[in-house]
TrEMBL record:
Belongs to the AHA1 family. Pfam families: AHSA1. This is Activator of HSP90 ATPase. The lineage of its organism: Bacteria, Pseudomonadati, Bacteroidota, Flavobacteriia, Flavobacteriales. Residues 13-135 form the Activator of Hsp90 ATPase homologue 1/2-like C-terminal domain. InterPro entries: ASHA1/2-like_C (IPR013538), START-like_dom_sf (IPR023393).
Amino acid sequence: MNPSAITVSATVDASLEKTWDYWTKPEHIVNWAFASDDWHCPKATNDATTGGKFSSTMAAKDGSMSFDFEGIYDEVIDHKKITYTIADGRKVEILFEGQNGKTLVTETFDPESMNPIEMQRGGWQAILDNFKKYTEGN
């Protein structure tokens, strides 16, 4: 990983199996892949295999803005690790670690150059927190 990589994490009160499923299945991704309540994820596709592609659309609910977050998986180790390259060339690593019925999810990503590091960390942490809330509530 890049020495300036950013790391965010959350402990999800759910089994490793459920956490993995909710992270990788499109029918769940559409329920959490956005940073705030005024955004949503109207569609997602995901082939969670090494070499597989993924895409999720993040959109403002008022229709003012949307973008596709997409890339290709470099490595997928079921229930343990995902690494991928975003369409803009940045690398991401996600680790899943079961801990007494809970799951620690740690994401490390290369920053982009347009926004401040703290803003990027905050945005990725907000999405991860949204994932945690959705997974624990369903």
